[in-house]
Write a sequence for this structure.
């Protein structure tokens, strides 16, 4: 159990009414609205009814009261490309940097959805922090089976530490520093020299978490005609840089807007071997796979290639511009 100097959220149901967290949440018909400055004591479970994004959720109390919760002390990237890379140390202030952060934001939302949606959790507020944020949302810790989910977001590289005062600040800073040093999650976007479409992206460059590398992105099909007329010349080349055969069955390849290709069962790469994923249609071979798309996937002005294992783990993230 995390040792945190926090006051845990209470919901007290009594015959005379309900004690809740504040006026911003809607309340069930026939249930008195909770007072604005309710004292918080003890703990109470709530149900996660919606995941807005990586750091914001909606919950429901036992009496039906709804609350929007902004996870305290953490900030995940926006799910669009409307991110400010300057907020994330080392991420270049380029279209590629913003695109990479947008993909990382979608990863964080997926991770939170998989972990919390429909689950029972406990809310906690911090004695050193404001109770509510600028938009009236409750600022709190989320605990699942005793584990601090805010802290988990940092260890998995889904978030940075939000610059504010709270009890857990020192521990959160250390978790972010470890994730950043290891190039975990969104920190794969952090590089002073973003890879170009033809650069090799290898493990010691910080953008590969396994033996699979992206050695080329050919986003601009040959010829003067539109790319849609030559889709098989729009492609990405992958290579197994490991020492053993790599089974990529069920692995996915996606762009910044979640066009997704699934490698079929039985797809393997021997050490040093390459496979080319072509956007158009054709007959699959050991060296060439065809997406079967009817229009271009890879944006000529910049995009992010993301490869995930069958369990959803990000194996490679490669932004280009």
């Amino acid at each position: 159990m995390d040792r945190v100097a926090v006051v845990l959220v209470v919901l007290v149901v009594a015959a005379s009414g309900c004690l809740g967290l504040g006026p911003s949440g809607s309340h069930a018909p026939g249930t008195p609205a909770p007072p604005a400055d309710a004292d918080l004591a003890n703990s109470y479970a709530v149900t996660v009814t919606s995941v807005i994004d990586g750091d914001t959720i909606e919950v429901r109390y036992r009496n039906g009261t709804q609350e929007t919760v902004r996870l305290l002390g953490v900030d995940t990237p926006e799910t669009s490309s409307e991110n400010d890379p300057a907020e994330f140390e080392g991420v270049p202030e380029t279209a590629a940097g913003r695109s990479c952060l947008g993909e990382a934001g979608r990863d964080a939302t997926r991770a939170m959805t998989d972990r919390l949606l429909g689950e029972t959790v406990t809310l906690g507020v911090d004695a050193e922090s404001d109770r509510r944020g600028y938009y009236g949302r409750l600022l709190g810790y989320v605990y699942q089976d005793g584990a601090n989910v805010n802290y988990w977001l940092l260890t998995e590289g889904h978030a940075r530490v939000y610059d504010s005062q709270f009890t857990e600040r020192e521990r959160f800073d250390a978790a972010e520093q470890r994730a950043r040093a290891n190039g975990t999650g969104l920190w794969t976007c952090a590089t002073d020299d973003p890879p170009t479409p033809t650069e090799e992206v290898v493990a010691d460059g910080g953008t590969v978490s396994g033996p699979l590398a992206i050695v080329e992105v050919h986003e601009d099909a040959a010829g003067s005609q539109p790319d849609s007329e030559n889709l098989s010349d729009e492609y990405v080349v992958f290579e197994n840089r490991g020492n053993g055969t790599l089974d990529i069955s069920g692995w996915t390849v996606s762009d910044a807007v979640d066009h997704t290709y699934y490698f079929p069962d039985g797809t393997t790469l021997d050490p040093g071997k390459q496979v080319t994923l072509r956007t158009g249609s054709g007959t699959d071979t050991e060296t060439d796979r065809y997406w079967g798309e009817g229009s271009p996937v890879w944006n000529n002005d910049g995009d992010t290639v993301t490869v995930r294992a069958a369990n959803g783990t990000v194996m490679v993230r490669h932004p280009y511009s």
Q: What stands out?
A: Helices lie at 95-116, 149-155, 169-181. The longest strand covers residues 45-53. The domain at 6-186 is CATH 2.40.50.90 (OB fold (Dihydrolipoamide Acetyltransferase, E2P)). The chain has two domains: 6-186, 195-320.
